[in-house]
């Protein structure tokens, strides 16, 4: 009896030690996460099925005169030689809404503006952020309620900044002041010719929006709300004066200037913030624990 008890006592420390190792290993595996940033491409290299066009005067989903083009792994805007501008601006909407994210796009302006396009639209396009739901856009609406990260190309001579801000159907706050004019220039340099240019945005709901060029902030604002005009043809139910813009769709424009997008990528900053979950990311800034995986 005594011999058996001594034998058990001899093995007890070893068993305890082994259990501690197993527990430590399991616990360590449970809290280890891949914290690499998981950027997603908003078009996948084969098509743009995740995008929906809407042109003024045309029904949602109609790619008027095939102006949005997918070719050579690029998402482009093109106009045929006999295509004449008649006020029918277009936008192409990504399927999902986002609230907190980083966005980066590589673009270039090419060719000549379409016939009878407005002077201000020469080498002019935009990434429209926090766009209203596409299904709520009026048949004759020219621009979505949104925050435009305006892209401009240089004319080869004059200064012309890019990553500017325009506010179709919106107002924003800069510093402590409500900004009501429609557009304001950034502090970026000018990008002439057909060169590839990379632009970035940091969007944190309605608390902060930044436009960046070459890693430097060139535009910053906050507290975007619906208002301010600068759009037409909208439905009254969609235009709720003073409503905060905390999320929305992303769209690109067809504003009479041919343009290529080589890439449009997004890093979602909203997701599972429970450290016990498999898909926890340390770089998330807004919790959506409904997405957690255990």
Description:
- This protein has 294 residues and is mostly beta strands.
- 10% of the residues lie in helices and 35% in strands.
- It contains 1 helix and 19 strands.
- The chain has one helix at 2-31, and strands at residues 40-41, 51-55, 68-71, 74-77, 90-94, 100-109, 124-131, 147-152, 164-166, 170-174, 177-179, 183-184, 197-204, 208-213, 216-226, 249-254, 259-268, 270-271, 286-287.
- The strands form 3 sheets. Strands 1, 3, 4, 6, 10, 11, 13, 14, 15 and 17 form a 10-stranded antiparallel beta sheet that branches. A 7-stranded antiparallel beta sheet has the order 2-5-16-7-8-9-12, with no helix packed on it. It has a two-stranded parallel ribbon with strand order 18-19.
- Strand 13 and strand 14 (208-213) form a beta hairpin.
- The longest helix has 30 residues, at 2-31.
- It is globular and about 60 Å long.
- The two termini are 47 Å apart.
- 34% of the residues are buried.
Global mean pLDDT: 90
Tell me the radius of gyration: 25 Å
Straight-line N-to-C gap: 47 Å
Number of helices: 1
Shape from CA axes? globular
% residues in beta strands = 25-35%
Largest sheet: 10 strands, antiparallel
The H-and-E topology, N to C, reads as HEEEEEEEEEEEEEEEEEEE
Task: Compose a concise summary of this entry.
It contains one helix and 19 strands.
Highlighted features:
single chain, mainly beta, 10-stranded antiparallel β-sheet, 10% helix, 35% strand, 7-stranded antiparallel β-sheet
């Amino acid at each position: 009896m005594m011999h058996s008890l001594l034998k058990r006592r001899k093995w007890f420390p070893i068993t305890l030690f082994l259990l501690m190792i197993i527990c430590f290993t399991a616990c360590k595996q449970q809290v280890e996460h891949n914290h690499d940033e998981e950027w997603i491409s908003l078009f996948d290299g084969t098509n743009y099925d995740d995008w929906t066009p809407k042109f003024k005067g045309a029904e949602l989903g109609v790619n008027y005169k095939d102006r949005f083009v997918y070719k050579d792994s690029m998402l482009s805007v093109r106009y045929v030689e006999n295509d004449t501008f008649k006020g029918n601006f277009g936008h192409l909407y990504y399927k999902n809404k986002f609230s907190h994210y980083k966005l980066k796009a590589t673009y270039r302006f090419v060719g000549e503006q379409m016939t009878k396009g407005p002077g201000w639209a020469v080498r002019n396009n935009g990434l429209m952020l926090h766009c209203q739901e596409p299904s709520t856009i009026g048949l004759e609406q020219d621009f979505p309620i949104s925050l435009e990260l305006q892209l401009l190309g240089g004319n080869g001579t004059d200064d012309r900044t890019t990553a500017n801000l325009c506010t179709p159907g919106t107002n924003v706050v800069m510093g402590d002041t409500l900004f009501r004019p429609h557009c304001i220039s950034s502090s970026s340099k000018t990008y002439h010719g057909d060169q590839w240019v990379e632009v970035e945005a940091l969007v944190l709901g309605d608390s902060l929006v930044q436009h960046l060029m070459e890693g430097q902030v060139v535009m910053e604002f906050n507290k975007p709300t619906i208002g301010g005009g600068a759009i037409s043809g909208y439905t009254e139910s969609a235009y709720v004066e003073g409503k905060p813009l905390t999320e929305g769709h992303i769209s690109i424009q067809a504003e009479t200037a041919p343009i290529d997008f080589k890439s449009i990528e997004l890093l979602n900053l909203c997701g599972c913030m429970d450290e016990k979950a498999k898909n926890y990311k340390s770089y998330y800034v807004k919790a959506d624990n409904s997405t957690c995986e255990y």
